[in-house]
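hey team, just a heads up i'm posting the complex here instead of the shared drive bc the drive is being weird again. everything in one block, sequence lines first with there labels, then the predicted structure for the whole assembly after. its two chains so it's a bit long, scroll down
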Amino acid sequence: MHINKEEAFKELIESFLGGNPDAFVKIATLAHADILNIVYRYLGNLEDAKDALQEVLIKIHRNLQSFRSASRFSTWMYRIAVNTALDALRKRKSQICLKDRYLKDTKELSSQKENIEPYREMMIKSAIAQLPRRQKNVFILKHYQGLTIEEISNVLGCSASSVKTHLSRAALALRNKMEGKV
Amino acid sequence: MRCPSKKDWVLFYYQEKDSLPREILQNHLLSCLACRNDYAALSGFLSRVERKNIQISEFELDKIIATATKPAARPYEWIRRLKEQIAENLARAKPLIYKPQFIMITIVIAILAAIAPFTIYKPVRLAQEDIAEVEVELALDDNSNLDILSELLGPEDFNENYSGLSIA
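-- predicted structure starts here --
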């Protein structure tokens, strides 16, 4: 998250808390891409990701008054996005369904391997879905969102060394799983 | 130099610092073929993991934001409505004393409270009476046995030997 974006958030939040409801529309417009990308990586399909985005925005809208500007807005927002995505996974009997769906999809795709790009992407999605929760959290925030180790440790509430360990384990586990498959 | 760990190479790929400085790792890559191959495989794999951004149309975004900011769309709204309904119903409800169920239950409790002491102590009292009755019978049996003995022995011998056992 760029510093400029963070400052823009700060100004918009002040404006919203000052009684300008339109400021929230701007906050949502500015934040939606990051939120959508995170929840999509967890949920694996766009429809569920849109539902999760809506839920995240509802939570932000409802709790923005209790947000303390001592911490960064983006950190707070990422935390809500990760928790919402994990809740959504739990609700739909989570990873088992997701894995099954991916496996079903990959079976369909494996019959048409000439379409190699979607096949590989699907295999990677499946492999990420099978990662342990902490490794998946760290990998998504680092690889897809490009957060720093420190930012990830703030979002997930764990130490930087733990983030580093989970990141390396996730990357190596994914590589091992994908070896020979793509 | 010993080869860096796999964790070091993952962090090197993501340009994050760990125990080893970046320059040392870069120099090591130049000198160690095994690490160079390993890192090439790792970085090749990670660079192939797609990072394209997911996007939605402006129309969809507007719809989502409108729903998110609409008070009625908030979750837990139904809990608030339910609480209000319960409070309203309670306010309209008759006082408890006028309810027939309340009167019936009160009468039953009063009757039970009146009967309870007798029903509870009765079996105990009966048991004690039974014991007393048996004891009396046993005592009577003893007397009759002594009578028989005194008849068999004769009054003189009986008084001589068993005078202490005679029962008044």
